[in-house]
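Posting for a labmate who doesn't have an account.
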Amino acid sequence: MAWRPQTLNDNLRTMRILYCTFVLSVFLYEFSAEQIGPEPNKANPIFVIGLAVVSLAIVIIALGLRRKYVGSAEETLRLSPDNPTALGRWRVGQILSLALAESVALYGLALRLTGTPFKVAAPFYVGAIVLMALWWPQRP
């Protein structure tokens, strides 16, 4: 059986390590896209708008999932810090919200790899970083 963090402190440390990995990956996406992407050309507005709409939907879904998992688990963890069920829900909510925020950065990567100029893809990278900054794993 795989090792799982058992205490709130262990979970918090693990989530902060994952958080740093997610944030670093956004910067690596941007760097990689600039190194291997094609020369910027005219952006396809339909593609850009489509990815922007999908990104907005993902942010709304992430906010709902975060409220459902992290919000409810934090209430329980305030009263019982080592409740295994609440720790599991909190951990799942943290990972889901970070993964969904990172998907916004992946849309920026997709735009750059299709030749869209950096200034069009940059809001996707910035949006992902802002979401992750707001969702820094904190002790309940």
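Reply:
Got it, the structure tokens are right above this. The first helix runs from residue 8 to 36.
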